[in-house]
Amino acid sequence: MTSFLDICDLDTGDITTLLETDRHIEAPNWSPDGSYLLVNGEGRLFRVPLDAPQLRDVDTGALHALNNDHGISPDGQTLVISDKTQTPHSCIFTLPAVGGAPTRITPKTPSWWHGWSPDGQRLAYTVVREDQFGIATIPVAGGEETVLIRSPHHYDGPDYTPDGKWIWFNSDRGGAMDLWRIRPDGTDAEQMTDDAAVNWFPHPSPDGRYVLYLAYPEGTEGHPPDREVTLRLITLATGDTRTLAMLWGGQGTLNVPCWSPDSRRFAYMRYARP
User: What are phi and psi of 237, to 5 degrees?
Assistant: First the structure.
């Protein structure tokens, strides 16, 4: 499978390919200083410098079963990863941005990271607790997790707004997979999309103007790979939604925060059609 690491420019609508590789890579994050992207593949983590695009290994210590739920702290000094090398299910760890020994954060599994609070103090993540999916947060320093919402429905992709007042996520609690938001204290859950598409992984822009997300065709179950998908953008001031790109992808395309620091561009993965 050929993987294409693409960048979309909101001002011009232009899409450029930063890196093409015959390795399967996923889920780009954009560093807060704008200098590199972070991706995963084959259970490992890679840095892709924008000025010299290539896959550069990030040392994750003894962990070698990473999935595509990873990210970078607001100050750029710490990475967060989700890995199951030492546990039966995904567990969240942090490590220095330059690489090094990981520190376990979540005592319970499964836990899949998705969002970092703007003040750098808390992590938001997807959980399964007592056989039910939910959204939880935990201090970056470790400690007790707080489950904000949980039910027999599916919950995924929690990501903070830049002012820290909301956490966006996707859920089928309304009958179909749509975008929602909730206060960080677990109150005021509010459905934000209501259409025929199957909507996943909302990412608020750093300037607070937009929410980017992945839309599957009507009737899609879960968030599978190898599908015709669209990238869509909500303008929060008006509520208008527009399609930015159509591509072959899905799982791995837009799982984690991917905006450039200036909110003018975002990174995503697409794949060669079989």
Answer: -65, -30
The answer to whether the Cα torsion of 68, 160, 124, 79 is positive or negative is: positive
User: How much is the pTM?
Assistant: 0.97
Tokens 């050929």 -> residue: 2
Q: What is the pLDDT of residues 37-90, one digit of tens each?
A: 999 999 999 999 999 999 999 999 999 999 999 999 999 999 999 999 999 999
**Hey, what amino acid is at 115?**
G
* DSSP H or E stretch at residue 93: strand 91-96
For residues 50 and 57, the answer to whether their CB atoms sit within 8 Å is: no
The answer to whether the beta carbons of residues 40 and 66 sit under 8 Å apart is yes
Strand partners, 48: 37
SS3 of 193, please? coil
Tell which residue, 199, 130, 209, 141, has the closest CA to residue 169.
199
Contact 22, 63 (CB under 8 A): no
Q: Could you read off the pLDDT of 21-48 as tens digits, one per residue?
A: 999 999 999 999 999 999 999 999 999 9
Domain 3-271: assigned CATH number: 2.120.10.30
What is the rounded distance in angstroms from the CA atom of residue 59 to the CA atom of residue 85?
A: 14
How far is Cα 228 from Cα 248, in angstroms, rounded to an integer?
5
Secondary structure class of 243 (helix, strand, coil): strand
Can you list the residues of the chain whose pLDDT is less than 50?
none
